[in-house]
Amino acid sequence: MAEDIKTKLENYRTAPFDARFPNQNQTRNCWSNYLDYHRCQKALEAKGEDTLPCQWYKRVYTSLCPISWVQKWDDQRAEGTFPGKI
Amino acid sequence: MAHHSHPYHMVDPSPWPLTGAIAALLMTSGLAVWFHFHSTSLMLLGTILLTLTVIQWWRDIVREGTFQGHHTPPVQKGLRYGMILFITSEVLFFLGFFWAFNHSSLAPTPELGGNWPPAGITPLDPFEVPLLNTAVLLASGVTVTWAHHAIMEGKRKQAIHALALTILLGSYFTFLQAMEYNEAPFTIADGVYGCTFFVATGFHGLHVLIGSTFLAICLARQIQHHFTSEHHFGFEAAAWYWHFVDVVWLFLYISIYWWGS
C-alpha cells in the first residue's frame, strides 16, 4: 500500500478531477483536502505510524488553495482559532 | 349620507394617507440619520406620526363600516381581497429572510468551519422554550377559532373569553421570547448565524405584537357590540393575520430552531 502511495506521489502533476466537487467553485475541494491532511497527520501520529499517505492531501490542497488561505488557516491553527474540526 | 345607486363606498376626503406617507418618509430618513449621526429624534417623530395616523385612519374605517353602514357585501369583498393580498406580501417578505438563512446554512463556508451551526455558536435547545412557544401559538390558533365560532353563533360572553385567552397566549409568547432573547448565548452580531436568527425571529416577534394589538382592538370592539353574527370582517382579518403569524413561527421553528441546531 505504501508503495502505491509512493508511486502516486511520484506521478503527481496536479490535483485530479474529484467527482465530489464537480462544479466551478472548488472552495470545498481545497477546504476538504486541507482538513483531511491535518486529520490524517493527527491520526497517524497518534498511532505512531508513517505519515507518508497524508502527503497526497497536502499535494492536492497546495495545488488548489490560494496561498493566502493556507497561510491564514495555518496562523489560525497556531493561535487555536481555526474553525474547522481536525 | 350620500345617495347613490351603487353599493360601493365613495370615501370622504381624508388627511391620513398624507400623514402616513410623511410618517413613512420621516421613519426611513430617520433610520439613515440614526445610522450616520447617532440621533433617533427624526425616526421617533416618524413613529409617533405613524401611530397617530393608523389610530385615526382605522378609527375612521370602523366609523364608516359599523356606524355609517358603508361596508356593503361588495365593499366587504374588496376588504377581504385587500387583506389577503397584504398577508401574501408579508409571506413574500418572510420568504426573503428564509432565503437568506438557507443560503448561508445549506453550504457553510470555511470561515464558519464548514459546519452549521458555525464553530463557536451554541444554539438554543429546540426542545426547551422554543417548543413551549410552539405549543402556545398553536393553542392561540385554537382559541381564536373558538372565538370566531362564538361570534358567529351570537355567544357574546364566550367570544369575549376566547378572544381574551388568545391575547393572553400571545402575550405569554412575547414574554417567553423576550426572556430567550435576554438569555441567548449569542447576539445579532455573532456572524451570519446571529444575523439570520435575530432578523428572522425579530421580525416575527414584531408581527406577533402587531397581531396581538389587532386582536386587542377586536376585543374592545366585541365588548362594545360592534360585531354581529354575520358581519365581523375586522375580527376575521385579525384572525387571518394571527394564523399567518402562527404559520411563520412553525416554519421558523422547523428550519432555524430545529434543523439549524
Sequence-ordered SSE layout with sheet pairings:
The complex is a heterodimer of chains A (86) and B (261).
Chain A: H1 2-10, H2 27-47, H3 55-64, H4 67-79
Chain B: H1 16-37, H2 41-67, H3 73-106, H4 129-152, H5 156-183, H6 191-223, H7 233-259
Description:
- The complex is a heterodimer of chains A (86) and B (261).
- Chain A has 86 residues and is mainly α.
- Chain A has a single domain (26-86), classed as Arc Repressor Mutant, subunit A (Orthogonal Bundle), CATH 1.10.10.140.
- Chain A is built from four helices and no strands.
- Chain A has helices at 2-10, 27-47, 55-64, 67-79.
- The two termini of chain A are 24 Å apart.
- By secondary structure, chain B is mainly α.
- Chain B has two domains: 8-70, Helix Hairpins (Orthogonal Bundle); 71-258, Four Helix Bundle (Hemerythrin (Met), subunit A), CATH 1.20.120.80.
- Chain B has helices at 16-37, 41-67, 73-106, 129-152, 156-183, 191-223, 233-259.
- Chain B starts with 15 loop residues before the first helix and ends with a helix.
- Chain A binds chain B through residues 27-28, 31, 35, 69, 73, 83-85, and chain B through 109-115, 118-120.
- Chain B: GO terms for molecular function: cytochrome-c oxidase activity.
